[in-house]
Amino acid sequence: MILVIDVGNTNITFGVFDGQELKTSFRMMSKNAHTSDEYGVHLLAMLGMNGIAKEDIEGVMIASVVPQVMHALVNSILKYIEKKPYIVGPGIKTGIKITIDNPREVGPDLIVDAVAAYELYGGPVLVIDYGTATTYVPINEKGEFYAGVVSPGIRISAKALWEGTAKLPEIEIKKPDSILARETISSMQAGLIYGQIGQSKYIINEMKKASGCPEMKVVATGGLGRLISEETEEIDIYDPNLTLNGLRILYEKNRKQKPQKNEFDDQNQPE
Are 14 and 119 in a shared domain? Predict the structure, then answer.
């Protein structure tokens, strides 16, 4: 079995694969600071609840967009799982070619999603991740990551509404019964959800047009991706486990080489 870890701006998602089968997944908040011991105890407890012992884990792959949690998290893997993790970054084999102007600017999360979409669904493919930010990444038939669009995610937009205005309340993010909202909460919900739907439709169509590929397959993932994909004919597939599968695929591509040395696995670093 392998352990894969996706460190996002809001949550850390853990997944355990037995071959290509996702046996279990669980989350914890990434915004709260934790020590390596806290990460380790939580991880072993969640694995144990799912009948998985640390001895069952043969390797670990991590992708992170939150550098400040990495020293503690990596040290927890070294200490409690007793494996040196692979970390998505320089030196990792991906199977795709990043052809944008500055490849080093591409986040690990975008790389993982691109690898998964291309390997699982082929190219050309447009992968959309509805996370803290909403990202749109096209991959052509040659496996080239050649462009990208980043926009505020639904939760960021919602937070801006209730924190930036005096009278708008914090609300549940869901689709209202009608776009013809008749009070404040449903008005906000309509703006957030239908605004994201409209944005998605427009960006998808414009990226297809600019790429000269009207038949490009569109794959969505991320926490609110299901809600948007259900309302958007332009999205062909919703895959909630796309990122975890991307980490699994990257582990399989790199398992024969030793995990690279990195700045996060020094036991003397602050935890």
Answer: no
CATH number for position 71: 3.30.420.40
Distance separating alpha carbons of residues 27 and 128, to the nearest angstrom: 21
Render pLDDT for 214-231 as a digit per residue (tens, 0 to 9).
999 999 999 889 999 999
109 catalytic per annotation? yes
pLDDT confidence of 267, banded at 50, 70, 90?
Answer: very low
Amino acid type, 101: D
Domain extent for 34: 2-87+249-254
CA angle 209, 236, 248 (to 5 degrees): 105
Confidence (pTM): 0.90
The count of domains in the chain is 2
- Given 6, 18, 109, 266, the catalytic residue: 109
Q: What percentage of the chain's residues is helix, strand, coil (to nearest 5)?
A: 40, 20, 40
- Residue 269: pLDDT band (50, 70, 90) is very low
